[in-house]
Amino acid sequence: MNAEKLKKISKRMSYILRHQPDSVGLTLSPGGWVAVEDLLAALKISREQLNEVVVTNDKQRFEYSEDASQIRARQGHSTLVDLQYEAATPPNLLFRGTATRFLHSIFEKGLIKGNRHHVHLSIDRETMIAVGSRHGKPVVLEVNAKQMVNDGSQFYVTGNHVWLTDHVPPQYLREFP
Questions:
Q1: Which helix (H) or strand (E) holds 99?
Q2: Burial annotation 97-133 (CB, 10 A radius, 16+ → b, else e)
Q3: In which domain of life is the source organism classified (predicted)?
Q4: Four-residue CA torsion sign, 28, 31, 32, 36
């Protein structure tokens, strides 16, 4: 399948599995799962095409259940769903990419989840530069995750190594040099 077709299917899957499953008559079960067969029917694609999208997705957004009968988006949901991730201890420092034009607001309010379930963080600074570049001149913020945990915050980690938390108050942030 060509790259354009892969991207189109991936974007449609993200929309369905993260935001509007009901747009194609699906309902997310606990954990955010849907039956693979139901998604295939909704998207009108083959299992081979679905596998190619899952395997080649640059951010590894999707995952199969252990028996490969169900599929879900790993994070980024705006629809109400309990992803059932268990709390995990993050590394001492995590990173978030953003654009410089958002810094004033971030240092005033912290990192907020907006209409998503969590704030997304990473251990990979380079990836965060790319994330920040999507919205303007990029900057990477360092998150003192160790202190957040010590102060009672909870973190979760997904299968593609994205760290999730509810909010990062400004006192745990600094601009990465």
A1: strand 93-99
A2: bbbeeeeeebeeebbeeeebbbbbbbbeeebbeebbe
A3: Bacteria
A4: negative
Give the pLDDT of residue 59. 85
Degrees (nearest 5) of the Cα angle 123, 52, 119?
Answer: 30
> What CATH architecture applies to the domain 93-175?
Alpha-Beta Barrel (3.20)
Per-residue pLDDT of the chain (177 residues; tens, 9 = 90+): 899 999 999 999 999 999 999 999 999 999 999 999 999 999 999 999 999 999 998 889 999 999 999 999 999 899 888 889 999 999 999 999 999 999 999 999 999 998 888 999 999 988 889 888 988 999 999 999 999 999 999 999 999 899 999 999 999 999 988
d(CA 143, CA 9): 34
Cα–Cα distance measured from residue 80 to residue 92, given in angstroms and rounded to the nearest whole number: 30
From the options 1.10.275.10, 1.10.10.10, 1.10.10.970, 2.60.120.1680, give the CATH code of 3-73: 1.10.10.970
Give the span between the Cα atoms of 154 and 165, in whole angstroms: 6
Query: Which amino acid belongs to residue 53?
Result: V
- Let me know: does 175 contact 132? Beta carbons within 8 Å: no
| Residue entry with tokens 């998207």 | 43
